[in-house]
Amino acid sequence: METLPELLDAVAHDRFLPPDGTVTVLPQPCQRDAGVLAFTAHTLVLTDEDPAWVRATLAAVDCDPLAAPMHPRFLTALMDRTGRTAETVDALWVGTPLPGPPTLPLREVADTGHPRAVRARRRRDAVRVWVADGGLLVVGRGVGGRLEVALEVDGGGAGLGRGLAVTARQLADRPVWAQVSPGNARSARAFLAAGYRPVGAEVLLSARGGSTGCSGSCS
User: pLDDT band at residue 113, thresholds of 50, 70 and 90?
Assistant: First the structure.
């Protein structure tokens, strides 16, 4: 079986997993990272729980089997069993690296108490933060060691969100992933305009009391 980083890399390069209705149960890559990643007719469940329990619980959900891994009843059962919590189901977007220096003027900051950066450090390793006029760009290593981007627009002119998303691609040396709430249309449009592609959806489960880092084990 391929590893989680290998599977994610394949998706990032448009080599999608077989659309055969499979639910692949993988052990958590580290204590922090648990959850469900849904792609076209193929779902990854990241958990250290017994795979037999996962499959039995999915079979008991009264819905289309393809929808069961993201069904609220299964997610609630998984949270109850693991003692974890979740915030939302996010759409997953991927952008490939772009050549050349960043087009936006940026200043990297070593430390910031901005809520976006604080949240990133709970879910990612090796987090780096840049500030621009009216915006914030955060990049770090998340699930399976993938490179993840988050951005915040506090002001600035039209198109700043798109510009920050493009800049993340210019700073990257490998595919960069974005997690966007489906209801956040402005963010989705910014990433779409910046050349990112929708590839799936996910819900991440957080340990109560805060998540711990992967300490490089996810790379």
Answer: confident
In which element (H, E) is residue 5 found?
helix 4-12
Q: Which residues contact 56 (CB under 8 A, 6 or more apart)?
A: none
**Whole-prediction pTM:** 0.92
Residue 115's contacts (CB-CB under 8 Å, 6 or more residues apart) are none
12: enclosing H helix or E strand: helix 4-12
**pLDDT mean over 172-194:** 96
Give the strand pairing for 90-95 and 176-180.
antiparallel
Q: Which residues, including other chains, have CB under 8 Å from residue 195's CB and lie 6 or more apart?
A: 95, 96, 98, 166, 169
- With the CA atoms of 87, 91, 92 and 95 taken in that order, what torsion angle do they form, in degrees rounded to the nearest 10? -120
Report the pLDDT averaged over residues 12-17. Answer: 96
- At 101 the three-state DSSP class reads coil
